[in-house]
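Thread: Newbie trying to understand structure tokens

Hi all, I'm a second-year student working on a class project, and my supervisor (Dr. K.) asked me to get a predicted structure for one chain before our next meeting. I've only ever worked with sequences, so writing a 3D structure as a token string is new to me. If someone could post the tokens and maybe explain what I'm looking at, I'd be very grateful. Here's the chain:
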Amino acid sequence: STAMAAQMTDAHRRFLQLLMAQGILEGSEARKLHRRCCEIHKVYYAHDKLEDFIGTINRHLQPLFMQVRKGMSEADGRAHYALVNLAETEITKMASDYTENELELFRKTMDLIILSENGFASSTDILNLADQLKTKKMKKKEAEQVLKVFVEDKWLSEKNGEYTLHTRCIIEMEQYILSNYQDTARKCNICHSLAIQSQVCDSCGIGMHLPCVRKYFRAQTEPRCPQCNDFWSLDIP
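---
Reply by user tm_fold:
Sure, no problem. This is what the structure looks like when written as tokens:
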């Protein structure tokens, strides 16, 4: 019954605890966890009811200004779930875990990533910022260590010396980024969530996530921009 479904059970609590411990769960992990929690606590389980299950958790989190949000990995388009704190901006939340100059390095890294063409910043460019920090300069070795921690804590992702924002960071900081980078941050024209790694139309300037580009143009013989209908000159990933 619907009344039952809206009840927060031990299955919901266990799910939430494990999500909090992980910070973020990939879609298939979340589905497995949903099933496991329901089985352990003998709560009604239906494989297609994960969104309802999370909806129940979210109703109970509302007074705490928390929310389980769904987002997408910009690399492969997979769904992810993260617990978001709505009461404070994420930078303040990070402040309890990092020193002032570490936070400044993170902000500057974020600037580089968001203002870049492709949504990445090279480690060289980031490390060059380390000795220009206003709060307290950082040695390169120290800055490398801090970047490693940002990756471990799932604020940044790194591939071949290039850094981008982790999916968790994008889900949690979407509002912060959209309001602090109004001129440069753009939403994906297809899925309407924040796009950091994106392709941008040469003619009208709309952006699309790479997985969204791939999906959108899959069925088209000649790729044209969904907004202005001009030829899409970029390579389809």
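A couple of things are worth pointing out once you decode it. Residues 1-5 have pLDDT under 50 and may be disordered. The radius of gyration is 20 Å. Feel free to ask follow-ups in this thread.
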